[in-house]
């Protein structure tokens, strides 16, 4: 493989570890835990893994002898920068426990476990991938690991390879499944441990014990670099409004973080739209008003950040999607028989009158996305909906009406962008390189200590890495019951943007000024070498949350 100069130099980077992971360690146990909600239901569904304590690793003088351990690793779901370092940390941690330990990687996601597709990850392979972006070391996939048949098929290969523990690197849905698997393997006395690692650029797998999911830092820095570049272009030519959709399936953490880094003229936060019960027209009016006010000052240019999940947060749309989800889950066979050209009418004729009217009013492409495509976890594939175009077209229409009424006298020309995939496999920032390596190393230590049903956790992350606190959090602690595919299921509670949280409040305090004036910030590209204040900064979100 031909390597770039940066790749070659970056391979030598030694990720920083928390102090406790640098030598012998011991476990400090916290008090028994409870799930975030629905305690009785979750306790009943997870009798073997519910209520375990939070664990922290601390330094120790005691030298322990660990047996050689064979472990398996799976990358699940969307790519996120740093996945390779989780695997490198896991590998180095297992070897530190016992040099004869071995690591197997299941190929292309959870499906690799079920279909018995794997490779052994040797020192040479691991060294090729240290500090690189991507998940290509073993590939990723979105197969949902949920049936006992799948668990049993997995167990066959686990036994064949003498694997003692499985590490699942994934988002909220994948870690939910990891927890179900841990419970199943424990209930059946298989002796197989399951450990999760918090991954997703979306930043929505976080709570009081998981400060951030890995990949969020790098992805936001990549998007902020290009938003900054666009803003400089925009401020130079002064003739376009740029509508920029940002990835993040549900929560608006990415949009908010990028806004904090770049100070755009407008940033929509889906959670606020929902809380204020705004309609699509309200969102359009809000944007159009700022465009018109800037035009009155002679500024016919600006930037709008739009979270990709917006559509699902507009209350009327949310009600429509909820009914559609239930309807499609219960009538999937009949629906599959309907001709493609008839599907839209079929849905219009079967929904309640309010939802039917909203559905019928949507542009063809948006309607098709809402009704047809779901990922294996039942999510609407919002990254395929062109919300940035939908909004700019509606803003343009509204401005034309205002012009006719004499309320607006500017020029409106729009450019559209979607930043998503280009941020998911970037070479991890120093923060993600260190954080991921520490998460993987921690997972190895949890395995060494015989734990199962835990998520690897590294806290105190706004401090230097030396002071980070490594340990484990019971996955059941993060769970609640939610309606999925028309049924109540135990799932890890998704962390949405908190409207009373410091990052959002900080944004609100400044957004009027950013809308009126031109206060753009240009963060520039991620720096891997140089002074700490340039290379090692965590996200603004993390800094504000931990302040
Ligand atoms: P994960 O939750 O699996 O990390 O994936 C997140 C994400 O990148 C979303 O931001 C985006 O909506 C989605 O994946 C896109 O999925 P796909 O890669 O299947 O197109």
Description:
The protein is of the alpha/beta class. The chain has 2 domains: 38-53 and 70-215 and 428-484, Rossmann fold (3-Layer(aba) Sandwich); 221-424 and 500-546, Rossmann fold (3-Layer(aba) Sandwich), CATH 3.40.50. The chain is 45% helix and 16% strand. The chain contains 23 helices and 15 strands. The protein has a 9-stranded mixed beta sheet with strand order 1-2-13-12-7-6-3-4-5, sandwiched between helices. A 4-stranded parallel beta sheet has the order 9-10-8-11, with helices on both faces. The protein has a two-stranded antiparallel ribbon with strand order 14-15. The longest helix is centred in the middle third of the chain and has 22 residues, at 216-237. It is globular, with a radius of gyration of 24 Å. The mean pLDDT is 94.
